[in-house]
Amino acid sequence: MNAPVDVSLFARAAKPITSYRKYWAHRFGPAPFLPMSRKEMDALGWDSCDIILVTGDAYVDHPSFGMAVVGRVLEAQGFRVGLISQPDWQSAEPFKALGKPNLFWGVTAGNMDSMINRYTADRKVRSDDAYTPDDIGGKRPDRAAIVYSQRCREAYKDVPIILGGIEGSLRRIAHYDYWSEKVRHSIVLDSKCDLLLYGNAERAIVEIAHRLAAREPVENITDVRGTAFVRRSTPEGWFEIDSTSVDTPGRVEEHVSPYMTIADQAKAKGGSCSKDDSLPLALAGEGGGEGTPAPEQALQFVPNPRIKLNRDRTVIRLPSFEAVKSDPVLYAHANRVLHLETNPGNARALVQAHGDRDVWLTPPPIPLTTAEMDHVFGLPYARAPHPVYGGAKIPAWEMIRFSVNIMRGCFGGCTFCSITEHEGRIIQSRSEESVLREVEEIRDKVEGFTGVISDLGGPTANMYRIGCRTPEIEAACRKPSCVFPGICQNLRTDHGPLVQIYRKARALKGIKKILIGSGVRYDLAVQSPEYVKELVQHHVGGYLKIAPEHTEQGPLSKMMKPGIGNYDKFKAMFEKYSAEAGKEQYLIPYFIAAHPGTSDEDMMNLALWLKRNGFRADQVQTFYPSPMATATAMYHSGRNTLRKVTRSSETVDIVRGERRRRLHKAFLRYHDPNNWPLLRDALKAMGRADLIGNGRHHLIPTFQPATDGSYASPRRKNSTSSAPVKGRMLTQHTGLPPRVTGAAKPARKAK
């Protein structure tokens, strides 16, 4: 078994978050809950708060809720931390409830982006909010991070505002906004915050808090990694590169055959992350500035090995806000360069002009070490909602109250997902001891525990302690994904530590069952048959979530997802091990409609695959262009940003307009009679009227039953065509909305 690699190469450049001298107020000790009222402050003996956090979520004191983590981390540094949850934003008065903070405001929209939280992919207002007591919608404003920051400034105008959370993180530069269909400013300008913290912010927020406590002016704090702020000009001593001379040293390879095995893919297309492929990028002639580059010469990378730059004093100037707002090609280029500068081992600072002001982004934060992760998750969380909510149900809390987060980050690089942009692609894992201790704490302290742990996971179920074979190669790599188009030859795929933690957790006294609720990266899982067997035979509660997302090469290549052949291989293993254990179990696959690069024919072929394999999805996900995602840049620009972006570079089929988006969604729900009229018209227009008929080989029938506009999947006794799935599955920390799908055919019981 390979020894797990920690992030020691990065950590050597960072001060441990546990090494600071504690602030004087540590003498008060930890609070049962962070106070939300003056009465609670009085009970703790506080005359004021050093830091006040404002969040758009209900306050649940649990390490799956970002504001609770930030609050407890700052409390452990000795600061008195208060919290204002879901305030009435119509005036500044509710923001004065805890008095004036001594050091700064910490502002976030919450665990989800406030726009995605409030609106569906069709821009319709949601009636619910899983992060609000009793699931009530409308308890936070649109663009909550901006509104809350404005009200904090109105309440106490001289107190610094530190903005964080996923809403700020994904809007740190000029970004396409799906809801207004235009490019908006960096949120640093719109919110008028003093500092924006992006990504996992523990390391940055601890340093900033201590520096502000030492009376350092906030405008002088411009050297903390993972931050963004406004400057008027470039300071002396910095070397500026125009981004139009920067591009990737290499390329994203052609999408391989979807029916090749992972081993074949790695052999044929594995690509190298070696240092030689990742030399620092250099200035190449005259930059393109903020104007429109000439065709063909625009956005080209011309390596110049004679120029060696100091990465720590180099800043890449992106096209200005005004340029990217008026030119989708420049927007695509800027987005691409930003994604190339996300590895904390080699990323450089970025700057983007907005009028006469510059928005600066320092390089990404250094990942937490295992010891630091253990510290963060081992803080004295109450593991419950604040008592102020009484008996109200908070769905997001109910979903994760018996789950354990064992890691952060994702190296999958899926272009539609926000995990990598926010948490990074370097996996940060907790120690085995820390995870087992939390399982025991749930068993002993959490009310209502019945012996079943609902999840041991994170952004994905099976990336725990997986990473590059050496920290040196990892720090030099610029590949956007470690598993696309095949698994990188430098990626360790050993699932041994994860198998071991599963076995030890379920062996604990009082633990009846350990379920895995996080989505499994199945192309990675098939590299370890031992893991798949362990998972299927001991940790599946009837259903297992996986995400093929599509079956066709066009959309899969734009998603950076593996071919459906890998799904077939995993499905065979799943059914084999289920049968050996005598269990009837289901695969629950996710599919996306209307993703960039998806043609009508692609959706038709997916529908045929679904019918052929007996899938009937109850609910489906339509592509949602979240800010800063690579797929969103494709959606806005019509260019493939996985390759070099030029005026004549590859274009992408974009699914726009309500009718076409409805059509793609209808193909996923081919079994719903309400969709048949739309599908009949589309199939005829596509020249595929042969798929309309009443036989088994037809996609939809010729007849149209009488209906009241509603549809429920059939529930036939002993049917193996589908398995209904009720309820909602929350995607934590990603800014993505919940998704639910139907299930596959069950694995047969062994006779």
Automatic annotation (TrEMBL):
Family matches, as PROSITE patterns: MTTASE_RADICAL, RADICAL_SAM
InterPro entries in UniProt: Elp3/MiaA/NifB-like_rSAM, Methylthiotransferase_CS, rSAM, rSAM_horseshoe, rSAM_sf, UPF0313, UPF0313_C, UPF0313_N
Annotated binding of [4Fe-4S] cluster, by residue: C410, C414, C417
Positions of the Radical SAM core domain: 396-665
Co-factor remark: Binds 1 [4Fe-4S] cluster. The cluster is coordinated with 3 cysteines and an exchangeable S-adenosyl-L-methionine.
Any matching Pfam family: DUF3362
Keyword field: 4Fe-4S, Iron, Iron-sulfur, Metal-binding, S-adenosyl-L-methionine
Domain of life of the organism encoding this protein: Bacteria
Annotated stretches, region: Disordered: 704-751
Cofactor(s) needed for function: [4Fe-4S] cluster
Family: Belongs to the UPF0313 family.
NCBIfam families per the UniProt record, alphabetical: SAM_YgiQ (TIGR03904)
Protein name: YgiQ family radical SAM protein
